Amino acid sequence: MNDKSGTMSQFFGGDDMENRVQNDRIFLREMKFEDWVDVHSYASIENACQFQPWGPNTVEESKEFVAQVLKDASARPRTRFSYAVVLKETGELIGCGEINIRDRTNRSGEIGYIIHPKHWKMGYATEVAELLIDFGFEKLRLHRVYATCDPRNIGSKKVLEKSGMRKEGQIRDHLWIKNEWRDSLLYSILEHENRARV
Prior knowledge:
By secondary structure, the chain is an alpha+beta fold. It has helices spanning 36-43, 59-73, 124-138, 154-162, 191-195, and strands spanning 10-14, 17-22, 26-30, 80-87, 93-103, 108-115, 144-149, 166-177, 180-190. The chain has a nine-stranded mixed beta sheet with strand order 1-2-3-4-5-6-7-9-8, with helices on both faces. Helix 1 (36-43) packs across helix 2 (59-73).
């Protein structure tokens, strides 16, 4: 299994989840409804969702998000894998990471992630991105994994580059977010590139 940081990423089944992904510091697990409290702790912070199409969340919006995640997890065939990001040492939920199958025929998927601001600049977002990328190629058998980010989001650009993705270009007026058109930077990685990451 590929691992840039020197730890061994593992994929295995669990009693309450279809898939679980981990490294030495964090694991990704299926969400439970009660996770809305921890989700709300970051989703209600303005700078945490500055570049997102949502937020800051109300309590009801955070509950609705988790309810939708649970609904999507039960869909068959499943196309959305949205996981709670949990610190192994403390059991604290610090964010969310997800991968969505966007095109089954062409084996393409998209990743996204968010980390509580109090845990920024500690490498967790990069680790989440790497785990999701590996999961996409090894478990979902994708050929291409991609992500987009706001050109102003310096932190996310660094995460995508550190995780082995290549910048493909800039999509102009890609999204209507918070009353304005926003460009998006497009990053991707192919399955043979992922195998060469070590």
